[in-house]
Amino acid sequence: MDSTFEDMLQGRAVLGNTISSVFRNNYITDDVIKFLETKIGDPYIEVAFREDDFRNRIHLATGKAHFVNEVVGVYRSTQEGLFQGSNILKKMNLKVSSYIEMYHYFTPKRSEWLNLALERVLEFGHTIRNDLNKIKDFPMIDIIQFIKILNELSLLYPVEFQKEMTHFIEFDYKKPKKLKYKIFYKVYNYLKRKLLKKGYI
């Protein structure tokens, strides 16, 4: 089964995990290495280029991926890993940061990356919709990153961002008994004001 760059952007690509993947080393140039070195330091940005997805994406930009449905190796996944060991907000931040970085990295810029980023944000919103008290339990560094992500998406993708956020809120406006869920957007505005005042963003 073959997958292309377009398949990946549409969420249709079938790809293997790290232990079962083999790549042609035809993209690591001095320019790419220098570029990657500029991403070292920020834990959210750095992970966008360290994870398996980037290797898949960069290779799919130059050719197809072929998937063979055979077991060729196994590995243990633990809660101490960079991604598996993260809380749900950090996991969302990591994924969305990765999509935004891919939007900036690839030429031409494709809005599909921003669609994927916005989908992850909304998925997170629906996850905590019924338990908004979870917000206060997340580490401040993850909350700050969340606000930064929302700000960047609102600037990069203003029309879609406004439409999707409005739809998210109105979904509950139509159901009076669930009006409290519009707090998700209020939490965003509240945290943004607080963090701006303290100079975090």
Topology, element by element:
Layout: E1 2-3, H1 5-9, H2 30-37, H3 43-50, H4 52-60, E2 65-66, H5 88-105, H6 111-128, H7 140-156, H8 158-173, H9 183-198
Antiparallel strand pairs: 1-2
Helix pairs in contact: 3-5, 5-6, 5-7, 7-8, 7-9
In a few lines, what is going on in this structure?
By secondary structure, the protein is an all-alpha fold. Helices cover 57% and strands 2% of the residues. The longest helix has 18 residues.
Describe this structure in words.
The chain has 201 residues and is mostly helical. The protein is 57% helix and 2% strand. The protein is built from nine helices and two strands. The protein has helices spanning 5-9, 30-37, 43-50, 52-60, 88-105, 111-128, 140-156, 158-173, 183-198, and strands at residues 2-3, 65-66. Strands 1-2 form a two-stranded antiparallel sheet. The radius of gyration is 19 Å and the shape is globular. The N and C termini lie far apart (45 Å). Mean pLDDT is 78; it is low at 172-181.
